[in-house]
Design a protein that fits this description.
374 residues; mainly alpha
Length: 374
């Protein structure tokens, strides 16, 4: 893993994300919109999806992205003076919906999504990933929002958003901030179109320019999370170790009898439940991917097409959680004391059922429609 392109891209994403944070333009652009236009729970939830989607296209580092977004909303909630219980639920929604939105594109979660491609030895670009995942994930996100509203309906109050509140003052972008915005926008556009124009190292060039502008400084190199990189290296290795040591074979040989002999809806249901069950025990999504992908690939060889198997595993593992340690993003919010374990558990149990239904009724039919399932 340390010798792979993914490793380098993760390092570059830390620096690029830090440059965006240093610019301060995200807060400047989002805060006025919240204060002027949010007047109900429904418009607030819609805004979370919209801004999480926009930031996904701009900031490649998923953890920095959700920290920025949650900080903006936390300050917004504090100024509104909403009660603690409602604030916890709304902050949880930011982290929860981000987990789902990140599945849309490869850049959504540069760590988890690239882990799937690396461990599964699948070579596809951003456009193909979007073809497979963008539409069904959008529907899944909508259902996640509906589920959130249903589960916490009694606690969601709109009174706090109906009061008239005007942002203290308009603070237009300075000339330097306009230059930063132009640089970031150009980087995002060129990076998105990389499969078309074929230019490489767009992010690296942008980072060099950020250093030249003074947007990044030598001290910002500490934003590269070396502990996370070491953890990822170990997590990527666990699957190989379990495979070569025979542990994975022991685990999956005992599960083989539960799998039908031919491809069917029941076969995929067993795959989904196997992924969710092992994720519940192992905790880490990357560790689970590194264990499940080799094992299920062996069992499903000649039965399930590679792409459909890998993306089924991906949704079942990376979209699933019912405790904070099942998702790094959820764990970040819980670690900041934004919400409690009980909220995660209450929503996560229902989410588990929603994932099973969504994979079988939304993702699989879509994959059949675009021609990768049989």
């Amino acid at each position: 893993f340390p010798l792979s392109e993914n490793f380098i891209m993760i390092i570059l994403s830390f620096l690029f994300s830090q440059g965006i944070i240093n610019s301060g333009i995200v807060e400047k652009l989002i805060e006025p919109i919240l204060f002027y236009y949010i007047r109900s729970i429904y418009s607030l939830i819609s805004s979370v999806f919209v801004f999480a989607f926009i930031l996904m296209l701009i900031i490649p580092q998923p953890y920095a992205r959700v920290i920025i977004l949650s900080s903006i909303y936390c300050e917004y909630f504090n100024r509104l003076g909403i009660d603690k219980g409602l604030k916890e639920l709304l902050l949880f929604s930011i982290f929860s919906f981000t987990v789902a939105i990140n599945m849309m594109f490869v850049r959504g979660d540069i760590i988890l999504n690239n882990a799937l491609l690396a461990i599964g030895e699948l070579s596809i670009d951003e456009i193909v990933w979007a073809k497979y995942m963008a539409v069904p994930t959008f529907v899944f996100c909508f259902l996640c929002a509906v589920l959130f509203i249903i589960i916490f309906k009694k606690s969601l109050k709109t009174e706090a958003f109906k009061k008239e509140y005007y942002f203290p003052q308009k603070n237009p972008l300075t000339d330097s901030e306009k230059r930063y915005l132009l640089l970031i926008a150009a980087t995002v556009v060129l990076w998105s179109l990389e499969p078309v124009h074929g230019l490489k190292n767009i992010v690296a060039i942008s980072i060099i320019i950020m250093f030249c502008f003074g947007l990044l400084k030598k001290a910002d190199l500490k934003c590269i999370n070396t502990n996370l990189l070491v953890y990822l290296t170990a997590a990527f290795s666990i699957g190989g170790v379990m495979t070569h040591s025979g542990i994975a074979q022991i685990i999956f040989s005992s599960l083989t009898r539960f799998f039908p002999e031919t491809f069917s809806i029941w076969y995929m249901l067993v795959v989904i439940c196997t992924c969710i069950g092992l994720h519940a025990v192992l905790g880490s999504s990357i560790t689970t991917l590194s264990v499940v992908i080799p094992g299920l690939s062996l069992i499903s060889s000649g039965i399930v097409q590679k792409e459909i198997l890998l993306f089924t595993i991906f949704v079942s593992v990376c979209g699933h959680y019912f405790m904070p340690f099942h998702s790094v993003i959820i764990m970040i919010g819980e670690g900041k004391k934004y919400y409690s374990n009980s909220i995660v558990l209450k929503y996560g149990i229902a989410l588990t059922l929603l994932i099973i239904i969504s994979v079988l009724c939304i993702f699989l039919p879509w994959w059949m429609l675009v021609g990768i399932a049989y």
